[in-house]
Write a structure and sequence with these properties.
Layout (H helix, E strand, L loop, with lengths): L5 H12 L18 E8 L4 H12 L4 E7 L4 E6 L5 H10 L3 E4 L7
């Protein structure tokens, strides 16, 4: 059986007590349940770096579970938690200076 140094054990207990799950996000903010998806047309991207910046911003946005963005198609697909709205994701993208238009279900096929 492996022995754990008292200081390492204490640090682990403190991290668990503080709710640290290694993601950098508050675990209490997570909402379990079925997610839903929305797609946006994003204008103003000039390169793949723009798409990467959008994804990074969305990943830091509360209510967003995941996001992908493609410069080539100018589309951004966002997976949202059950309680989040599409407007939450759209605002995060607009904050970066891009024009965002929600796609209708027929357009995203």
């Amino acid at each position: 059986m492996k022995r754990i140094a008292p200081t390492a054990l204490a640090a682990s207990i403190l991290a668990l007590a503080a709710g640290c799950d290694g993601t950098g996000r508050d675990p209490a903010a997570r909402v379990d349940g079925p997610s839903w998806h929305t797609t946006f047309q994003v204008e103003g991207m000039h390169c793949n770096g723009c798409a990467e910046a959008i994804v990074a911003e969305l990943k830091e946005t509360p209510g967003v579970r995941s996001a992908t963005c493609a410069f080539e198609t100018k589309r951004c697909n966002v997976e949202l938690m059950p309680t989040a709205t599409a407007d939450t994701a759209a605002k995060a993208i607009r904050k970066l200076g891009y024009t965002v238009t929600p796609e209708s279900p027929a357009e995203s096929k």
